[in-house]
Design goal:
The chain has about 325 residues and is an alpha/beta fold. The chain has 12 helices and 9 strands. Strands 1, 2, 3, 4, 5, 6, 7, 8 and 9 form a 9-stranded mixed beta sheet that branches. The longest helix is centred in the C-terminal third of the chain and has 24 residues. The radius of gyration is 20 Å and the shape is globular. The mean pLDDT is about 90.
């Protein structure tokens, strides 16, 4: 199996060489490395040129992350495709582990843990995701209970089969939510509808936190941020429903709109407490949501559920402080 590693870069000269070296240094030999530069204004292009014919360079005008994914995929030949962000890197065995999973024709995605590192590459002791989903088929439970029942890694921690990507590429290249959806947001919204996913229960690379990036790893307790996260979900919901209908799958009444993600439920309730929304989830689905993806940790789910009840009955200032604590810590 040929594996395409597509590196997406925009002004990441400080990290780009590490990403390229990690791709070229894989223990699995049958790879191609494509590096897309999205109109960088730093020295990224000079770094890319140093690698000569070891890589396939593609230099383009700036048009966003998703457009780079689409272009890189269109130029790739691999049976397996990995989209590697230039500020992340892969461990030496990452591709081999992905290929081992994807030799099973039922599997359309392989995913593993990523070590979270700081801007200097120092380990933080945290993993992305906190708990990786178990291997299996998630189509039916996704259709009945909504998106993201299976918890994958971020973009660089995944590998997709070409047979899946051929059915969904290109992804939308104009992100209406300030890049909050992103390539993996679109792909992970629909991949579980097309086949099995296989998990690698070890770290296969590094996910870097740097600058002022504020995302699912670094939560921002502000109305604007939480509104963007909820809008991101609705965008992904519409995207998933489109492909479910194309596949002829039976969809119950608006299953994807049920907020079974407890963090999103809590964000919605926080907006109500802030006076930014009037849409509050019914009490039972709200309090019960921490149990949907407890991953076997019933004690933690029970504690979270009790805290949710307090958020609904305590005065708004206290409830907001508790919501902030829960979202930032858990």
């Amino acid at each position: 199996m040929l594996v395409s590693i597509i590196i997406i870069n925009y002004n990441y000269q400080a990290y780009l060489s590490q990403a390229i070296e990690s791709a070229l240094g894989q223990s699995y030999p049958h790879i191609e490395v494509i590096v897309i530069d999205d109109g960088s204004s730093d020295n990224s292009v000079e770094i890319i040129k140093r690698y000569g014919d070891k890589i396939t360079p593609i230099l383009k005008q700036n048009s966003g992350h998703c457009s780079c994914i689409n272009l890189g995929y269109s130029k790739s030949q691999g049976d397996v495709v990995i989209f590697l962000d230039a500020d992340d890197l892969l461990y030496e065995s990452a591709v081999a582990l992905h290929v081992e999973n994807l030799t099973n024709p039922a599997v359309i995605k392989s995913t593993g843990y990523q070590d979270i590192v700081d801007s200097a590459g120092q380990l933080t002791g945290r993993l992305m995701p906190g708990v990786l989903g178990k291997s299996g088929n998630y189509r039916d439970i996704t259709l009945s209970k909504g998106l993201d029942i299976y918890r994958p890694s971020f973009t660089s921690g995944n590998a997709w089969s070409r047979k899946f990507l051929q059915q969904v590429m290109p992804i939308p290249d104009q992100d209406p939510i300030d890049n909050m959806v992103g390539p993996d947001g679109y792909l992970t919204a629909v991949d579980v509808l097309f086949g099995d996913v296989a998990s690698i229960h070890q770290s296969i690379g590094q996910y870097r936190i740097h600058g002022s990036n504020c995302g699912p790893v670094n939560f921002c307790f502000s109305a604007r941020y939480m509104q963007k996260r909820l809008l991101c979900r609705q965008t992904r919901i519409r995207y998933a429903e489109k492909f479910a209908q194309q596949l002829g799958l039976q969809i119950p009444d608006k299953p994807f709109y049920q907020l079974y993600d407890w963090k999103l439920n809590l964000m919605q309730q926080s907006l109500v407490l802030m006076g930014e929304s009037t849409r509050s989830a019914p009490l039972w689905p709200f309090v019960h949501s921490p149990f949907i993806r407890r991953q076997g940790n019933t004690i933690k789910a029970t504690m979270t559920s009790m805290a949710f009840l307090l958020v609904r009955i305590l005065p708004a200032p206290i409830s907001l402080k508790l919501a902030n604590y829960l979202l930032s810590r858990w």
